[in-house]
Design a protein that fits this description.
five-stranded antiparallel beta sheet, 28% helix, six-stranded mixed beta sheet, 2 domains
Length: 361
């Protein structure tokens, strides 16, 4: 499984606490109740009591690697003249390392820069990427070569057009392939600029709120998220507004010292956060071989024992739940507490265990 399609979850706290779990004796239900600590985790060896049907209680379990949804990331890079000098060197070097990093393997990427061409309102001008779509590492060479052709020589920052075009492209991606996820990464150091003294479709293209509304529409309508990394000089209020509207809470605004290391960490953070905390329900369930009440989620940190994450419909802590109609859910989703930990850990893996009664918080 690739570095970005494997799920990841920090479960060291649960292991350190030595979580103890007890299952109810086998009843007629398809789920089993669990008594757990506030961490919400259980070790796989402790999930079945005497006579129970939980994992470890004698049931026949089938474990398979969890299948997440392919991730597409459109990188839109500001190459206005204010990026000249160290910021530009940091941006190019950081993106090069990102594309060549083994941890990026499996991520589908696209790349374009702005400004390009004459200023105007047409967002579709920036829709098609200069490179991509393609999966890393296969596309890394083309990605890096394209970066080498760029120079920070633009005299405006048409964020309305550039971000709008990238969002349109990502919307097309998920519209054509509903089993995929997409996001835009906007890298910039300034405030929106241009075209001046005009309106675009009746909107001010330099308005922070107008641009944020583009990100909100893509996120609300299609689940396309917008990440923002702001280099020194960026209008932080604008960057944060766009990121929040695009479903990523806040921008990553770099400070003026150790910019290279900050940018590298920011790219790693985006890579982790771009991973969806959503996993496909195995076909055995939809084909009627197993019921929804005999599905468990198992997570393993490198070198550690596997643990089970409990089903937690309220998502009031660690856990997972089904999303969609009760009788025929669409996919498995990690709860926010678990999702945040997953996106911060590059060492863990996730498996779906079938055939044993679901562990429920």
């Amino acid at each position: 499984m690739s570095g970005v399609t494997r799920a990841r979850l920090c479960v060291g706290v649960a292991l350190a606490l030595g979580v103890l779990v007890g299952c109810s004796a086998g009843s007629g239900d398809d789920t089993t109740s669990v008594t757990s600590t506030s961490s919400g985790f259980t070790t796989s060896s402790g999930a079945g009591g005497a006579g129970g049907e939980g994992i470890g209680g004698g049931c026949a379990a089938i474990s398979q690697a969890a299948e997440s949804y392919p991730v597409n990331l459109y990188v839109m890079l500001d190459r206005s003249s204010s990026m000249a000098g160290n910021p530009w060197t940091v941006a190019v070097d950081g993106l090069t390392a990102f594309a060549q990093d083994d941890a990026s393997a499996g991520l589908r990427v696209a790349l374009r820069s702005f400004p390009q061409g004459a200023p105007g309102c047409d967002q579709s001008f920036y829709k098609a990427p200069a490179v991509g779509w393609g999966e890393l590492p296969a596309i890394a060479g083309a990605f890096v070569s394209e970066l080498a052709t760029y120079a920070p020589d633009g005299f405006s920052t048409p964020t309305y057009q550039a971000l709008g075009g990238a969002l349109l492209e990502c919307v097309d991606v998920v519209d054509a392939a509903p089993d995929q996820r997409a996001a835009v990464l906007l890298i910039t150091d300034g405030a929106p600029q241009g075209p001046s003294n005009t309106t675009c479709a009746g909107q001010n293209p330099e308005s922070h709120q107008v641009i944020a509304d583009l990100a909100k529409a893509a996120y609300d309508g299609y689940g396309v998220r917008t990440f923002v990394i702001g280099f020194p000089g960026v209008d932080a209020s604008f960057a944060n507004l766009v990121a929040a509207s695009g479903g990523t809470s806040s921008a990553i605004v770099l400070g003026t010292t150790n910019v290279a290391s900050q940018f590298s960490a920011a790219l790693q953070s985006v890579r982790g956060s771009a991973l969806p905390c959503e996993y496909k329900i195995p076909p055995e369930v939809f084909e009627g071989e197993l019921t929804l009440g005999k599905v468990n989620v198992e997570l393993t940190l490198g070198g550690q024992e596997p643990v089970l994450l409990p089903k937690n419909d309220a998502c009031d802590g660690p856990g997972w739940r089904y999303v969609g109609p009760v009788s025929q859910p669409e996919y498995i989703e990690l709860c926010p507490a678990s999702c945040a930990a997953v996106q911060a850990d590059f060492e863990a893996s996730i498996r779906i265990v079938l055939g044993c009664l679901t562990i429920v918080k």
